[in-house]
Amino acid sequence: MVRKINWFGLVAGIVTLVMLVLSLYMPWWQLTIGQNLVKINASPVYMNFGFFGSQFTIPLIWALNVITILTFTACGLLMLIYSLAPTKPYAKQLLQFSYRKPLYTLVAFVVILVAVVLGLRYFGVSFPLNGSTTLTLPSNWTLGTTVSALVSGYFELPFWFAIAAAALCLGARIYHGHILQPLIKPEATANPTATAATESLS
After folding, report:
1. Residue 40's beta-bridge partner residues?
2. pLDDT tens digits, residue range 127-173?
3. pLDDT at 194
4. Which CATH number characterizes residue 125's domain?
5. Residue 177 pairs with which residues in a beta bridge?
6. Burial annotation 120-133 (CB, 10 A radius, 16+ → b, else e)
7. Separation in Å, CA 197 to CA 187, 188, 189, 200
């Protein structure tokens, strides 16, 4: 009997773990203002802020990052276990847990990021999601003085791995239904003529 493997899930588990390792060293999205004046490293796994070259983290955000790290680790490992045994009684429970978290985390990250950027634009501060521009602060913020600085926002490599992991996890969920389909062998169609001849002889 040929062993069934969910190849989408197998690759998804590997990509999720690779994405997690990369995210420990690189942000999903980075914003820099001026030359090390302000730097924001945004990621569900590790997020920090920099002012004048000094980096710091907020304890509450750090705690959320740790939870996300543990969640991604569990998702990647459970997806690998599921993929190698997708027909086991416990397989569906493993899949339901492991495929949703990367997808939901990615969607939540993008929604929050876009909401922050659009919210700042409402107050007259424009940040690029991907690219560079010159930021000019509103005059009422600077007591009539014009303050401008180069602003750059870029999605880093872990973000694209996160998209790939989420897509593969979704593919694993869809392919799971195909794996569970029973193998139906086409029945041999009886020859009507031969059947009639046999009946007449009997």
Report:
1. 31, 49
2. 778 888 776 665 555 555 666 777 888 999 999 999 999 999 999 99
3. 47
4. 1.20.140
5. none
6. eeeeeeebeeeeee
7. 21, 18, 16, 5
Rounded Cα–Cα distance for residues 14 and 89 (Å): 23
Within a domain: 2: no
Work out the end-to-end distance of the chain between its first and last CA atoms, rounded to an integer number of angstroms. Answer: 41
What is the Cα gyration radius of the chain?
Answer: 27
Q: What is the token pair recorded at 106?
A: 């990615």
pLDDT single digits (tens) 47-86: 888 777 677 778 888 898 999 999 999 999 999 999 998 8
Give the DSSP letter string of 129-152: SSEEEEEE--TTTTTT---EEEEE
Question: Can you tell me the mean pLDDT for 12-38?
Answer: 89
Q: Is residue 1 part of a domain?
A: no
Structure token pair of residue 85: 């045994």
